[in-house]
Design brief:
The complex is a heterodimer of chains A (328) and B (517). Chain A is an all-alpha fold. In chain A, 71% of the residues lie in helices and 2% in strands. Chain A has twelve helices and four strands. Chain A has helices spanning 19-34, 41-66, 74-118, 123-142, 153-160, 168-186, 188-198, 200-205, 210-236, 247-258, 269-288, 293-314, and strands at 147-148, 162-163, 166-167, 238-239. Chain B is α/β, with parallel strands linked by helices and 517 residues long. In chain B, the strands form five sheets. Chain B has a six-stranded mixed β-sheet, with helices on both faces. In chain B, strands 16-19-20-13-21-22 form a six-stranded mixed β-sheet, sandwiched between helices. A four-stranded antiparallel β-sheet of chain B has the order 2-1-4-5, with helices on one face. In chain B, helix 11 (251-259) packs across helix 20 (503-511) and helix 17 packs parallel to helix 18. The chains are: A mainly alpha (328), B alpha/beta (517). At the A-B interface, helix 7 and helix 8 of A face helix 2, helix 13, helix 14, strand 18 and helix 16 of B.
């Protein structure tokens, strides 16, 4: 096949890695040289395993960011899911309980989507509201204390099992990134997400059903987050009303570090991967170097702001559009 | 009705002496926003005791000029003389302390505070917290200030309880408390009733008698002519009528100056007319406007003409299903659809090029190809999956035909020039497989000559394929060259219809509201 002869620009098939790929690479080399036990196979698997749990939820966050929104409710819907999963476990069995738990997270996404798409409320406030509602519900249902799940191999398989030698969370993360890539690059829905995120007025006037598109985005985001919720529940083997309160912020940080602008309309699956890897490597190195845990946050904060600044200066991915009103 | 006659009389009685030295003079002022040149060597002269109106279409540079006068933005070039002495304002505060007091279109008052506290706002802005209490004006002062604008209300009333007109007077009173030399009124009557506007104008006259210069911005020609002593008209960032006395400018000259002598539009053979395929029944864009009915034939290009604020663009948007109206229906063939539902409109083959490309048309961060294909995604996707080769194959020929430059479909749309961005929005509609009706608003505003020709050709070519075209534009030559007939819109209603063959002067007269076309 001669693509050029067909008048099809070859650039379309050339993969250009995002700017954050370079940052991830530099970070990797840097830690590999400076941190003694960092580049061992066991440690790297650990890094990726930790990264994978964050990565799956970050895929959901990426969808919402591309839509020009933001999703905070991850922080409590994960906890709510874990409590509900553990409570339904005795009646429904492992699979059933996981289904119910996942359903809860997707439902929270659907509620967010309805309020944001149908009533045109700001995502910031809606998801902040559902974050609080979820936290309240989780601790009310659990009575304020963690509920232990009866020990079972089936229940802990999600977090500790392996498929063909690969830890299950890593396999699920790879699958999630693949699904996100496919949705964004190859489906009509993904294209509509970009259009609605880039200019919601123009999308509406171009005849796109913006309400459905936005609603679907929050539901899909909930579905990604549900996978993270189940892995976390499986790992702690209990219903924790305070399971992952920082998840929304970590996922937003991962996407931002990866180079997805909060302005909407832009973002790729690979950017999520690099952002998540940068955060995970960072956390791991801080622990290996025996820095106090408090340092982790300082370092992550520095990396978020630093990498966003770097990408802004490099002018890649961060076209926030210096909008100038040249009106009358 | 406004008491224009009385005001006209008052003005004619004013002594026609020399206007004296300009209290404010601006020369050669330019301002660039990105690639857009908002002002290009504009000029403005205000004289004491006179109302000076600035007129111009949207995008002419009025707002930019006003913002420069009040110190809200700084020009890139040009000089400003205040009573003959050079001056520069780095902030609104500096301008206010120099005696230039802005009254904004959107009131800058605090509805939950009392009138007296509102009157003190400028003083408060200049003090530190600990002194705030002292900066509140006394009740007597407040009363005196309110008196000067003819308001007899208790200064301790909560502002929110006043009418919009009264609030505007409070805002003026606040300005007068600042030893005001120049009062800047930006669209002051936009939200006022006739009675309130009359009252405002009476106050303005009174201020002028006391020597204040008034800079007056309005879209309404009638009231501008009635109140203004001097006129400045801006077009494309340049001053085309410079501080001329109002009585020396007639309405046609004014409209002509605002719209300009544009580049000649090439004459084209217009297609033959077919059956009526598009009907609008009983469309009313606002409550007080009369309903309009429009029927357009296949191959017909119907021009919609109207000055800015006339409602021509709103009617256009309503016809495309892009703007909800309280009543009225649209129909393509015998398929009826409601206003305000673009999804349905597109499914019936109604294309739409909105008037404001940046707000309603462009996806700046997406590629040219994604911009061009936004309305036709279903045509190159199957079972929810995008087929990129098909997208490329369907859209790139359109981009070639519209001479997109550079012809790089994968470049971000924000990197293209205005004209080429507009081509992307146009091609989005031409690519509709079932295109039967095309509504284009201001298709060539802010577009270079080359792109203009291409877009005009594309519109005529679409009509030749049997598409019914509705073309709303403030570009008279465009309307005259491309339309089979022209509907004239004033005050949100279709006031009449004319044939392009009756000429530019007739159209100008119709737009100016003189004589049925």
């Amino acid at each position: 096949m001669t693509m050029a002869a067909a008048g099809s620009p070859s650039i379309r098939f050339a993969y250009r890695p995002p700017a954050s790929a370079a940052i991830a690479f530099v970070a990797f080399v840097f830690f590999a040289i400076l941190v003694p036990r960092f580049p061992t196979l066991g440690n790297l698997e650990n890094v990726i395993r930790v990264a994978s749990i964050l990565c799956i939820a970050a895929c959901g966050q990426a969808v919402v960011l591309i839509l020009g929104g933001i999703e905070f409710s991850f922080g409590s819907s994960v906890a709510l899911a874990s409590v509900v999963t553990v409570l339904t476990l005795p009646d429904t069995g492992t699979l059933g309980a996981f289904a119910v738990g996942a359903g809860v997270v997707v439902l929270v996404g659907a509620v967010n989507g309805t309020l944001i798409a149908r009533f045109e409320l700001p995502s910031f406030l809606v998801t902040l509201g559902t974050l609080m509602i979820g936290a309240g519900l989780a601790s009310t249902i659990a009575g304020g204390l963690p509920i232990d799940a009866p020990a079972s191999d089936a229940f802990s398989w999600l977090a500790r099992g392996r498929i063909a030698g690969i830890p299950v969370p890593i396999a699920l993360a790879v699958l999630s990134v693949a699904v996100l890539y496919f949705l964004l690059a190859h489906t009509r829905l993904g294209r509509f997400w970009y259009l609605a995120g880039a200019n919601v007025n123009a999308a509406r006037l171009a005849g796109i059903n913006v309400r459905f598109v936005v609603f679907a985005g929050y539901v899909v985001a909930g579905a990604f987050c549900a996978v993270t919720a189940l892995i976390l529940t499986s790992r702690v083997a209990s219903g924790q009303p305070n399971l992952a309160p920082n998840l929304p912020f970590e996922t937003i940080a991962a996407c931002a570090i990866g180079g997805i602008p909060l302005a909407g309309g832009q973002g790729r699956a690979s950017q999520v991967v690099y952002g998540v890897l940068i955060i995970a490597m960072m956390n791991n190195a801080v622990v290996l170097l025996n820095f106090p845990v408090a340092y982790q946050r300082l370092m992550i904060a520095a990396v978020i702001i630093g990498s966003v600044l770097l990408q802004k200066l490099a002018g890649k991915g961060w076209q926030t559009g210096a909008r100038s009103g040249g009106s009358s | 009705m406004l008491n224009f006659v009385a005001m006209d009389e008052a003005r004619k009685q004013a002594p026609k002496t020399d206007r004296g030295q300009a209290v404010l003079e601006i020369r050669g002022v330019s301002k660039q926003y990105g690639a857009t040149c908002a002002l290009d060597g504009a000029r403005l002269r205000l004289y004491p005791g006179r109302v000076h109106a600035v007129l111009g279409e949207n995008g002419a540079g009025k707002s930019t000029l006003v913002k420069i006068v009040v110190g809200a933005i700084q020009p890139d070039a040009g000089t400003m003389l205040l009573a003959g002495k050079p001056a520069t304002f780095r902030s609104v505060q500096q301008a206010v302390s120099a005696g230039i007091v802005p009254i904004y279109q959107h009131l800058s008052l605090f509805p939950h505070l009392s009138v007296r506290e509102n009157l003190s706002a400028f003083a408060l802005g200049g003090t530190r917290n600990s002194r705030a209490a002292k900066a509140i004006v006394s009740k007597e002062t407040a009363r005196a200030w309110l008196d000067s604008v003819g308001l007899t209300i208790d200064p301790d009333t909560e502002l929110g309880r006043l009418s919009i007109g009264e609030r505007q007077l409070v805002e003026i009173a606040r300005g007068l408390g600042q030893s005001c030399k120049i009062l800047v009124l930006d669209e002051p009557t936009a939200a006022l009733s006739h009675a309130e506007a009359d009252r405002l104008f009476a106050v303005v006259r009174q201020l002028c008698a006391a020597g204040t210069a008034v800079l007056f911005i309005s879209h309404k020609l009638e009231e501008t002519e009635a109140i203004a002593d001097d006129l400045t008209v801006l077009r494309n960032g340049r001053t085309v009528i410079d501080a001329e006395r109002t009585e020396r400018v007639n309405r046609d000259t004014l409209v002509h100056a605002m719209l300009g002598e544009t580049v000649n539009v090439g004459v084209r053979d217009l297609p033959e007319l077919g059956e009526i395929i598009f009907r609008a029944r009983g469309i009313r864009i606002h409550r007080r406007a009369a309903a309009c009915d429009i029927a357009v034939r296949a191959g017909e290009i119907v021009g919609v003409a109207g000055l800015v604020g006339s409602g021509a663009l709103e009617i256009g948007a309503a016809l495309a299903g892009a703007r909800e109206t309280a009543i009225g229906t649209l129909a393509v063939g015998d398929r009826i659809f409601p206003t305000g539902n673009r999804e349905r409109a597109i499914s019936l083959g109604v294309g739409y090029v909105p008037s404001d490309r940046h707000v309603e048309g462009l996806f700046p961060v997406l590629t040219a190809l994604q911009n061009a294909s936004a309305s036709v995604v279903p045509t190159f996707s199957r079972r929810g999956l995008i087929r990129r080769a098909s997208e490329h194959g369907r859209l790139v020929p359109w981009l070639e035909r519209l001479k997109l430059q550079p012809l790089r479909p994968h470049l971000q749309a924000s990197g293209f020039s205005g004209g080429n961005q507009q081509k992307l929005v146009v091609s989005r509609n031409l690519a509709l497989a079932n295109l039967r009706v095309l509504v284009v608003l201001e298709p060539t505003r802010g577009v270079d000559i080359g792109a203009r020709e291409v877009i005009h050709d594309a519109i005529v070519a679409a009509a030749r394929q049997g598409v019914a075209v509705i073309l709303a534009s403030s570009d008279l030559d465009e309307l005259l060259a491309l339309s089979h007939r022209i509907l004239v819109v004033r005050h949100g209603e279709i006031e009449g219809e004319m044939s392009p063959s009756s000429g530019r002067e007739t159209l100008i007269a119709a737009l100016a509201g003189r004589g049925a076309p």
